[in-house]
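Exam revision sheet. Question 4 asks you to relate a sequence to its structure. Input first:
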Amino acid sequence: FRINAENWKKGFMPCPGEVRLYLPAGGPGVRVDSHMYQGYKVPPTYDSLLAKLIVWGNDREEAIARAKRALSEFVVGDIDTVIPFHQIVLENEYFLRGDVQTNFIPKRILMEE
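Answer key, structure tokens:
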């Protein structure tokens, strides 16, 4: 999962600002790659990528469960991120049954909001 400083409800508009609280997810089957730290200032002129959250499991169901847990624990304080967007995707009935095509996001996520 790309954890970006963006407001997904406003067309994934970048949201620069200061990260006042940073608590990355962890635990079994979870990895976070990031340059972020508490006090980091997200600039308005560069890619809004803050971190990459990688999860894995013995099967798809375990990986999804770990992803849900990791996203619920991942805290980036005082700026908008796409974490809530990823959580919505992970709860989507089409995604959960593996019914995903190239138009999944516009058809199954953005149209539902």
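Marking note for examiners. The longest strand covers residues 49-55.
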